[in-house]
C-alpha cells in the first residue's frame, strides 16, 4: 500500500501541488499569505510539498535534516506553525480524495490506506513541529543575547564624568545589569559624576523609578554623584502624578544641561577658543 | 465598540499591554502627556498582576458617554486578593519593598478608579481616562 501511495503521489506531483496551493490560500492563516508575495508563496509551497514527498524516498536522517533546513527558512519568512501542520493535513486529505475518486482505494483497502497514511504523517508532524520550534527557540535566544549586549554601557565622556544612556524597557533583569555596570564603571573610570540618561526609556513607572533611585543611592555610597538626565516633560508629569519622591536625586531635562552641571561640580567649564 | 485584552503571564507581557494601551490612546487622540499617563497606569496594573497574582489580564476598551469619549483599563486576576483595600490606597504602603505608589498613583493618573477585591478570589480594578 505504501508503494501505491508513493507512486500515486509521485506521478501526480504537479496536480497535487496546485490543489494544495489553492486550498491553503483559502484555509490558511491570513498572516501567512499577507507576509509574502505570490511568487514566494508558490515557491515555498512547492518546497513544502517536495519536503513531504521526500519523506517517502529518503532515509529518516536525511528527512530530518531537510525538515530542519526548511523550518529555519519558514521561521525567517514568518510563516506560522499552523501553516505547516494545516499543510500536512490538507496534503493528506488531497491524496485521499484524489485516490478515492480515481479508484485507487475502495472500501476494502481503505483501512489499510488510512493506517499507512497515518504512519506516514505522524512522524512528519513530530519532526516538523520539533524542527520549527527549535528554530524558533534559537531565534529567541539569539535575540535575548543581542538585547543583553546593548543593555547598559557606562561611557566615560570627560575625566571624572561618565554617562549611561538607557534605551528601551527596563525589566528586573536589566535593572540588575544597570546597577552592576554602573558601580563597576564608576570605580573603574574613577568617575565623580555619573549621568543616567533616560531619554530613551518609554515608560517610567514606580518600578523603574524605584530602580533608578536605588542606583543613584548606590552610586552615592561608592563616593560619586548621580544625576538623572533626559526627563521629558510628559515623564515629569507622570512622576508627579505617581507621587514618586525624587528629591534626593539631582535631575535635569537634557543630557547637555547634565554635562554642564557635572563640569561645574568638578570645577571645570567649556570655553570657546579665542583665535 | 472595540475592545482587546492582553494576558499577563510573564514580565514581557507588561510591555505588550502597554503597547496596546498606547496604540488605542493614540487612535483616540490623546495627547502625549495623557498617553504617558495611560501607559504608566497600565504598566503599574500589569506589574501588580505579575508580582502579586502571578497571572491575569489587562482589558482595554474604548468608551463613550454622551459627547465624552475615553478609554477604560480593566485589570483582572484570580490571585490572592487584597486584605486591606484602604491600606493599599495609601501612599508609601508596600508589601514588596517597592515605592508603594502604584495603586494610589494609578488613581491619580486616571480620571475614574474603582477596585474590588475578595480574599482568595481575586481583584478587579477598573479605571477610565476621558478625552478632553
Automatic annotation (TrEMBL), chain A:
UniProt organism field: Domibacillus aminovorans
Domain of life: Bacteria
PANTHER family in UniProt: RSBT ANTAGONIST PROTEIN RSBS-RELATED (PTHR33745), RSBT CO-ANTAGONIST PROTEIN RSBRC (PTHR33745:SF3)
Domain STAS: residue ranges: 151-266
CDD domains for this protein: STAS_RsbR_RsbS_like
Gene3D superfamilies: Globins, STAS domain
GO MF, any single term: oxygen binding
Keywords linked to the UniProt accession: Phosphoprotein
SUPFAM superfamilies given in the database record: SpoIIaa-like
Protein name in the entry: RsbR protein
Automatic annotation (TrEMBL), chain B:
Keywords: Kinase, Serine/threonine-protein kinase, Transferase
InterPro entries named among the record's database cross-references: HATPase_C_sf, HATPase_dom
Highest taxon listed in the record's lineage: Bacteria
Domain Histidine kinase/HSP90-like ATPase: 33-132
A GO MF label: protein serine/threonine kinase activity
Pfam families: HATPase_c
Protein name according to UniProt: Serine/threonine protein kinase
Amino acid at each position: 500500500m505504501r508503494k501505491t501511495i508513493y507512486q500515486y503521489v509521485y506521478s501526480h506531483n504537479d496536480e497535487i501541488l496546485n490543489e494544495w496551493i489553492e486550498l491553503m490560500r483559502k484555509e490558511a492563516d491570513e498572516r501567512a499569505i499577507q507576509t509574502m508575495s505570490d511568487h514566494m508563496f508558490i515557491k515555498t509551497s512547492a518546497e513544502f510539498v517536495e519536503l513531504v514527498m521526500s519523506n517517502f524516498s529518503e532515509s529518516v536522517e536525511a528527512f530530518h535534516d531537510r525538515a530542519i533546513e526548511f523550518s529555519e527558512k519558514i521561521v525567517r519568512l514568518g510563516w506560522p506553525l499552523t501553516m505547516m501542520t494545516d499543510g500536512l493535513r490538507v496534503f493528506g486529505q488531497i491524496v485521499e480524495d484524489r485516490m478515492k475518486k480515481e479508484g485507487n482505494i475502495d472500501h476494502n483497502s481503505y483501512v489499510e490506506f488510512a493506517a499507512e497514511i497515518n504512519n506516514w504523517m505522524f512522524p512528519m508532524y513530530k519532526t516538523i513541529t520539533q524542527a520549527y520550534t527549535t528554530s524558533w527557540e534559537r531565534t529567541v535566544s539569539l535575540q535575548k543575547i543581542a538585547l543583553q549586549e546593548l543593555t547598559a554601557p557606562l561611557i566615560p565622556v570627560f575625566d571624572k564624568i561618565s554617562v549611561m544612556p538607557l534605551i528601551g524597557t527596563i525589566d528586573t533583569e536589566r535593572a540588575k545589569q544597570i546597577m552592576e555596570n554602573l558601580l563597576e564603571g564608576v570605580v573603574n573610570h574613577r568617575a565623580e559624576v555619573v549621568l543616567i540618561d533616560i531619554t530613551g526609556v518609554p515608560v517610567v513607572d514606580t518600578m523603574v523609578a524605584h530602580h533608578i533611585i536605588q542606583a543613584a543611592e548606590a552610586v552615592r555610597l561608592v563616593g560619586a554623584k548621580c544625576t538623572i538626565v533626559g526627563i521629558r516633560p510628559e515623564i515629569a508629569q507622570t512622576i508627579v502624578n505617581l507621587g514618586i519622591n525624587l528629591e534626593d536625586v539631582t535631575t535635569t531635562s537634557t543630557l547637555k544641561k547634565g554635562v554642564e552641571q557635572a563640569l561645574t561640580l568638578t570645577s571645570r567649564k567649556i570655553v570657546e577658543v579665542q583665535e | 465598540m472595540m475592545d482587546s485584552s492582553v494576558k499577563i503571564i510573564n514580565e514581557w507581557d507588561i510591555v505588550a499591554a502597554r503597547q496596546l494601551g498606547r496604540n488605542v490612546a493614540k487612535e483616540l487622540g490623546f495627547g502625549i502627556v495623557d498617553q504617558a499617563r495611560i501607559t504608566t497606569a497600565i504598566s503599574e496594573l500589569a506589574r501588580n498582576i505579575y508580582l502579586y497574582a502571578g497571572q491575569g489580564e489587562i482589558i482595554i476598551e474604548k468608551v463613550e458617554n454622551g459627547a465624552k469619549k475615553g478609554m477604560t483599563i480593566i485589570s483582572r486576576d484570580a490571585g490572592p486578593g487584597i486584605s486591606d483595600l484602604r491600606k493599599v490606597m495609601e501612599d508609601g504602603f508596600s508589601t514588596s519593598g517597592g515605592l508603594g505608589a502604584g495603586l494610589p498613583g494609578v488613581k491619580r493618573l486616571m480620571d475614574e478608579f474603582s477596585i474590588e477585591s475578595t480574599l482568595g478570589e481575586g481583584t478587579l480594578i477598573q479605571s477610565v481616562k476621558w478625552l478632553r
